[in-house]
């Protein structure tokens, strides 16, 4: 910690404080994530080990950079590049609403980050506006890989279904799926795009049951044709919802272009195998139809205090099920 000095406080996470710091030699601004070990016998929290391991493997301009890790007292500190704000705050800055070109540029940055993670066999499992940070230069970067997991091409390993913040949680997770793919991230990308287009969350459920009810009411009741294997999911028979045809995409996005509706629709597909991949989404007509995405020079540049001014309320995030592994590789590949 001698290399850094604390100059402020950013917030408080699940495992400890996040402080604003500065490297004493270079003057570089950083975010210091202090992780406190409540019980030494419990060791380092699993979610933090996952984040460290995943971030050490990542080298992408659209994923937040882990600069250093070191022990301190009864815990340790993760050092990240400092990001003055996030997409959550940008969406709530009514005095500076995002333009269509800016929305498109944010989506390109998000998709490039997701493409990188998926090509490197990492699924994030908690994509949401609050985990998409914005640099001083206006670059969007994916952050908080605490629920991140490495995955194999065979997709033959079970995972916890208690991941992803509820509003952005894929329907297979809501039905208790333990075998799923990185497509859960693509559903979340569709939810984020929908929120950028309407400036309001698409599926704001207060409980898991209400969340599923809103999704079904909006998109219609799934069938074995539209969602093969849905009836075999662990929680499918635990609750029955009234059958519905769902809403038309014109109703869901009344003020959007056909291209914007089509791109969102291709992410919000019940059948995870048919969701549009990030690589494919980057060449969708939405990004090549006027108004075109803007240059980085025309993106919002958050100033000091932007995050504090638009302090995000805590999302109701379900805690992942505890899974204990002694080997890091086994932990990330399970």
TrEMBL record:
InterPro entries: CDK, CDK20-like_STKc, Kinase-like_dom_sf, Prot_kinase_dom, Protein_kinase_ATP_BS, Ser/Thr_kinase_AS. Its EC number is 2.7.11.22. GO terms for cellular component: cilium; cytoplasm; nucleus. Residues 4-287 form the Protein kinase domain. One of its GO terms (biological process) is cell division. It catalyses: L-threonyl-[protein] + ATP = O-phospho-L-threonyl-[protein] + ADP + H(+); L-seryl-[protein] + ATP = O-phospho-L-seryl-[protein] + ADP + H(+). It is found in: Cell projection, Cilium; Cytoplasm; Nucleus. Keywords: ATP-binding, Cell cycle, Cell division, Cell projection, Cilium, Cytoplasm, Developmental protein, Kinase, Nucleotide-binding, Nucleus, Serine/threonine-protein kinase, Transferase. It holds the Pfam family Pkinase. ATP binds at residue 33. GO terms for molecular function: ATP binding; cyclin-dependent protein serine/threonine kinase activity. It comes from the Eukaryota. PANTHER family: CELL DIVISION PROTEIN KINASE (PTHR24056), CYCLIN-DEPENDENT KINASE 20 (PTHR24056:SF171). Belongs to the protein kinase superfamily. CMGC Ser/Thr protein kinase family. CDC2/CDKX subfamily. This is Cyclin-dependent kinase 20. It comes from Cryptotermes secundus. The lineage of its organism: Eukaryota, Metazoa, Ecdysozoa, Arthropoda, Hexapoda.
